[in-house]
Amino acid sequence: ATRLLASCVQSICGSSQLRLSTPAPLIDDVPEPQQVPPTLLPAATQPSTATIGAAVSLAKPAKEYQVSKPCLLTPVVRHFEASVKGSGLGEDGGTREVQREAFIDGLDEITKVLDVMGGAGTGKYLASNVKKLRSSQADKSKLGYREWLLSELPVHGANGYKEYVDDSAAMANLWVGRILDFFGEMFACLHEGKETSQSVDIAFSQTLY
Length: 209
Description:
The protein is mainly alpha-helical. The chain is 51% helix and 0% strand. Helix 2 (49-59) runs antiparallel to helix 3, helix 4 (100-118) packs antiparallel against helix 5 and helix 5 (124-135) packs antiparallel against helix 7.
């Protein structure tokens, strides 16, 4: 999610290959394009509060972020900020939990960004997995994203714990990561000035092939 957000913002700012289907601005007072760190997307299942914070900072101007009119990326930034609000190092020295509901709300908003940029249906695969996250049997009393995913472990006993049950938060989380990884790479290629078709091919070979 963090790689996608950072790459998306920077491709909008700096790529002449990107064409939007709406004249509305995607973000207010966009900063000058910066180089996207190659490893913003965390390898672990649990999204890092530090990397989400890094992406949010890339998407925001250096000055105080103030919304003067509706922008497509504004809800994404706000939800991701809320998901790491008050985060930092926990007592064990690790990062605290990403807040589940705000993080999933942010994913929901990303589907809208994809639909506007690529046309209706572009975000449908992400949307279907976000829906699966919301309808899962994971314990909804768990506010942290990681603890919420772990609460679903007994469900996978149906498969002898050899693989994820398809209709589950764990399976949705797996595909959410893959989908965002693909779009993150694609937007990074667009930011470098590559053609859309070439960007899609490169992203697919690097993330889904």
